[in-house]
């Protein structure tokens, strides 16, 4: 049997098709620019001999229904999914599940209504995620649909970690609390770290760092998330590509009062014009590192602020967890930037974290340890695979 994973955005649908007995990726790709005159369809798959093949075409795709129809046609055309009856489940990424969802969930009409009710907590993401579910139910009416929530892994946080120190009615009546995101990624790399350590996940204490254009840190105690850096929205926490992360909550009031900025402008400023981009005019860490090496002060500042924030969260989570088995880097930046890993861990030797310089800078795309042999806490680099985690959780929900 096979599992189709869909990640539906406002103008795109990404997909991967897995064989669920060995989790081989049979096909993957995307439809982008939905609603534009020429949408782009890309599909990659392996033929019967195992040779990688690709398909790409441009055509008008006015909506998500036709986008998913085009994906189904491509999967049939390539032979990756000749008959939809081969599907065991369709797994959907949903960004926000609020407090309603603690685990992957089989979709029915009631579940769709609950996801719709959570839209105010993620107005930029949940509507598109829901569109993907609705379209898939029409296209594959007999196949179980499973919603997998970015927030679900963090629903094990204690109240002391997820509550804000604001009037209680804001939590009770309006759901204002920490939810956390990137849960699928943190869950995946946490389990992989446990396997590399040779311990059951339920016996592991870990700090996982998902570092990409969006970035978050999570403290995992005995296999469960007990704290995470993102909050009610993905804006809180670490320095990101274009998001500020933690700032004084009074800053927006100050900017509103003295610059006359309205709420929409302030939201755009903090979400799309801040972070690395705001500090040095660039959100591509590779370019920032190149500029810093050439002596660019703004680029050096951006790296320094980012590493400083990372180190603060690592230290806080070491204190929160007590015994810690491993620090795990993942995400495009976490997996590829030896420079940022070194800066984030510099000076933490007395806390049990010691990097091996040669291992850290060695070129590799594989799972690996980059800690010194004498480091009490392992430092691991583990490429994330959120699609595989969604596929696995979809099968678990169906089973």
UniProtKB/TrEMBL annotation:
A GO term from the CC aspect: cytoplasm
Gene3D superfamilies found in the cross-reference section: 3.30.420.40
UniProt cofactor note: Mg(2+). Can also accept Mn(2+).
Short name of any one Pfam family annotated for the protein: Acetate_kinase
Naturally occurring in which organism (per UniProt): Lamprobacter modestohalophilus
GO terms, molecular function: acetate kinase activity; ATP binding; magnesium ion binding
Origin: domain of life: Bacteria
Purpose: Catalyzes the formation of acetyl phosphate from acetate and ATP. Can also catalyze the reverse reaction.
Cofactor: Mg(2+); Mn(2+)
Active site per database record: 150 (proton donor/acceptor)
Catalytic activity of the protein: acetate + ATP = acetyl phosphate + ADP
Record flagged with keyword ATP-binding: yes
Keywords assigned: ATP-binding, Cytoplasm, Kinase, Magnesium, Metal-binding, Nucleotide-binding, Transferase
E.C. numbers: 2.7.2.1
Gene: ackA
UniProt keyword ATP-binding present: yes
Protein's name according to its UniProt entry: Acetate kinase
């Amino acid at each position: 049997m096979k599992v189709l994973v869909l990640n539906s955005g406002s103008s795109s649908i990404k997909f991967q098709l897995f064989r669920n007995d060995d989790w081989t990726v049979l096909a993957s790709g995307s439809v982008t620019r939905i609603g534009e005159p020429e949408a782009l369809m890309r599909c990659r798959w392996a033929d019967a001999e195992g040779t990688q093949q690709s398909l790409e075409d441009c055509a008008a795709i006015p909506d998500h229904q036709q986008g998913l129809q085009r994906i189904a046609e491509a999967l049939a055309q390539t032979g990756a999914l000749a008959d939809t009856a081969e599907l065991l489940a369709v797994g959907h990424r949903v960004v926000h599940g609020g407090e309603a969802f603690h685990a992957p969930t089989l979709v029915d009409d009631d579940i769709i209504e609950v996801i719709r009710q959570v839209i105010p907590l993620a107005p930029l993401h949940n509507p598109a995620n829901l569109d993907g579910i609705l379209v898939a139910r029409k296209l594959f009416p007999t196949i179980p649909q499973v919603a997998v929530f970015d927030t679900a892994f963090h629903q094990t946080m204690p109240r002391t970690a997820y509550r804000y120190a604001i009037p209680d009615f804001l939590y009770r009546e309006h759901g204002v609390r920490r939810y956390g995101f990137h849960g699928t990624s943190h869950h995946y790399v946490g389990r992989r770290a446990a396997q590399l350590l040779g311990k059951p996940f339920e016996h592991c204490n870990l700090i996982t760092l998902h570092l990409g254009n969006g970035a978050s840190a999570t403290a995992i105690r005995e296999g469960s998330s007990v704290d995470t850096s993102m909050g009610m929205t993905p804006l809180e926490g670490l320095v990101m590509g274009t998001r500020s992360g933690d700032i004084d909550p009074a800053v927006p009031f100050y900017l509103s009062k003295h610059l006359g900025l309205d709420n929409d402008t302030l939201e755009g400023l903090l979400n799309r014009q801040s972070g690395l981009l705001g500090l040095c005019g660039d959100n591509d860490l590779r370019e920032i590192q190149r500029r810093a090496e050439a002596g660019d002060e703004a680029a050096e500042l951006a790296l320094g602020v980012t590493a400083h924030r990372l180190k603060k969260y690592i230290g806080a989570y070491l204190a929160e967890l007590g015994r810690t088995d491993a620090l795990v880097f993942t995400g495009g930046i976490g997996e590829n930037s030896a420079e940022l890993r070194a800066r984030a861990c510099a000076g933490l030797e007395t806390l049990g974290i010691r990097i091996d310089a040669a291992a850290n800078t060695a070129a590799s795309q594989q799972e690996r340890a980059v800690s010194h042999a004498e480091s009490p806490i392992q430092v691991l680099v583990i490429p994330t695979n959120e699609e595989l985690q969604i596929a696995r959780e979809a099968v678990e929900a169906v089973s």
